[in-house]
Amino acid sequence: MTHSDGSITTGTATRRFDPDRRDRLIDTTLDVIARHGVAGTTHRKIAAAADVPVGSVTYHFASLDDLLAAAFTRLAERTAAQYAQDLGAAASPDEALDVISGYILGMLGSPGTLFPSYELYLMAARRPELRRITDRWMARSRAALGRHFDEQTTVMLDAMIEGLSMHSALSLEPLPRNLVREALQRVVTPQ
Question: Which residues, as ranges, make up the DNA-binding region of this protein (predicted)?
Fold first, then answer.
């Protein structure tokens, strides 16, 4: 019997009809990683945050590693798509540098991506199978940058963005926007 709340009764058990549960678990995993890091992420924490039984998590994902890979893939795809959209809206290399500066200083993009991104980088450094995710992410980032800059400049900018973003995120004193912008400009137009 199907109830008005979408739940289904079969025999004596009632279960909730939740066709988007797998996707919700992936998104919830990113939230748990942002709060607790990968080391503190467990099936139980994910289930509690998603308000589902633990068995539902293990039903949809064979292992925690599979769930982490799915979550990191989603993070990379969303971030790369937003980055490409924002850089695509830039009408010139100068405007592209403004967009990049905003990303570095955390002014653009989703605030829940910083810690999960660094968790992914760390895991990928230790687990080569996750490098496919970071490699695709970097390729998409470089393609977005390549709309405005030549190939060598794109590679240098991509590396600089990662380094400056980390400094910006970890520094007790915020990096001045004009310094970030000047550093990017020097890569684009060496003196």
Answer: 42-61
